[in-house]
Amino acid sequence: DSSADNSQQGRFNLGIIHSKLQIQNLIQESMLVAMALSHTATPTPTRHVSPLNPNASRNSVRTTTASTATASTTCIKTHLSNLDKLLKPSQPKPDQNPTMLNMDVKKPAQNDHEKTPYLLNALNLSSLLPFLQKTAPADEMSPRSLRHLQRLLSDTSRPSPKNSIASRWHMYHGQSNWFGLLDPLDENLRRELVRYGDFVQSAYHAFHSMPSSPASKNRHLILPDRSYRTTRSLYATSSVTLPDWAHRPGTPDWVTQRSSWIGYVAVCDSDREIARMGRRDITIVLRGTATCHEWFENLRASLTPLEEGEETQQGNNTSQVPKVAQGFLSLYKSATEEVKSLSNSVIEEVKRLMELYKGEELSITVVGHSLGAALALLVADEVSACAPHVPPVAVVSFGGPKVGNQAFAERLENRRVKVLRVVNEGDVITRVPGLEIPRIGHVKEGYAHVGVELKVDSKASPCLRSDAGPACSHDLEAYLHLVDGFAGTGQPFRSDAKRSIARLLRHQRTSVKEIYVNRAHQLGFDSTAAAMNRAESFGCAPSPSYR
């Protein structure tokens, strides 16, 4: 009996060895077939070539070839390592769920035609044969994705690395209209744009934390980038008289006050950052609409000459007169006995800083969102001609409307003001006004955009719902989220985007996909409580849509 058992055991072992050799041959044959198919039958994928970067096509071909070779090597090692798992399948522990980080999530039931044989699953041939692949449910997240989400929910700013741009700062400041930097988006430019956007977020936060502070008092701001310090607070004054219904009982005073804090002037004050950027940067930051007076000014869309009497001098040729929206010009030029106009405050401070840092390499950057983006163009127009030798002036605008006519756009170009407009595809504010509201005795004129455009799209974000509304499309935090993830036209959202989505959950929770909201809740993040405590995070100011 013992010898019979040994003989039977030996035949069993030989059978296993024989099966193992057969499976190895099967793997090698399937690998050869799959590799042959990939070289002969796989169609060439469509490549999106940007007109701004014609070399992108060649680079993508080289990248695709290298990635294919690497993937083939990895697949071979994976299939061979799965061989022992086929012969000795290991059962997971009852309390272990390796796919969802110990979260009780029910897997969707599979139909009979969706199931693949156990042998093919064990050999992992689906990675080589595309027709065996199963599309993961939209709401399923891998452990890696969840770990990435948990890091993004930390609300810790993780900007791109600070590379030195000293030798190329003119290029990043728009000297060549950002040619070759926008599509695909240069990582150094992305970092600069997100930083300027955070400056505007801090302006929103500073206003909403103390909306009724006296105009004579300078606000102490803690900026997202500590290498900058604020030098002056800025106020905008409206010339509109509000109707009686706007002063109803219970309305906060700041909602109906004529003059409101709208931004600040800051200057780079760090020797290390100055050396990295190649110059000392003077930044003028302007927030968007917040008060009733500002909303009423937004509606005054009649074009009016920038300079008084200029339309009369031109006679009938009024189309050659630079004109801007009446409401924007009112907020820029109006003043009271206690508060200087935004125009006077900006010019005084810029001249003072130019004299203070005379002899140094300087730049002037004006940044704003929504209404602030419109006022930024008026600021840049005047600053560029306020002195004989003005440093290079650039405007970075997020979600800015049209401000003036074609003559105004040409005037900015002639004064060498460089404008970069960041535009969300679904943001209607960037498309208005279209035509001037006609006045008696005046010819109806059209508005025109100025500068170059960096277009992003909410639909490209893996976090935002496809039906996100106009409020989300215009929200500043949504803009910064999209800029941080934008790689280029036709390219997927960056998988290594570092901006915290905790801010997005605070400002636009209803526009974030439910899977991310639920996972954030399971990870212990409470967007409601975080929103109530937003004062602790200087970079998370509420946009108008949030309020």
UniProtKB/TrEMBL annotation:
Per UniProt, subcellular location reads as: Plastid, Chloroplast
Domain of life of the source: Eukaryota
Q: Which Pfam families match?
A: Lipase_3
GO MF terms on file?
A: phospholipase activity
Predominantly, its location class is plastid
Q: Where is the Fungal lipase-type domain?
A: 284-435
Which InterPro entries does the record cross-reference, listed alphabetically? Answer: AB_hydrolase_fold, Fungal_lipase-type
Biological process GO annotation list? lipid catabolic process
Q: Which UniProt keywords apply?
A: Chloroplast, Hydrolase, Lipid degradation, Lipid metabolism, Plastid, Transit peptide
SUPFAM superfamilies hit by this protein: alpha/beta-Hydrolases
Q: Which GO terms describe its cellular component?
A: chloroplast
Family to which this protein belongs: Belongs to the AB hydrolase superfamily. Lipase family.
Q: Which PANTHER family match?
A: PHOSPHOLIPASE A1-IBETA2, CHLOROPLASTIC
Q: What is this protein called?
A: Fungal lipase-type domain-containing protein
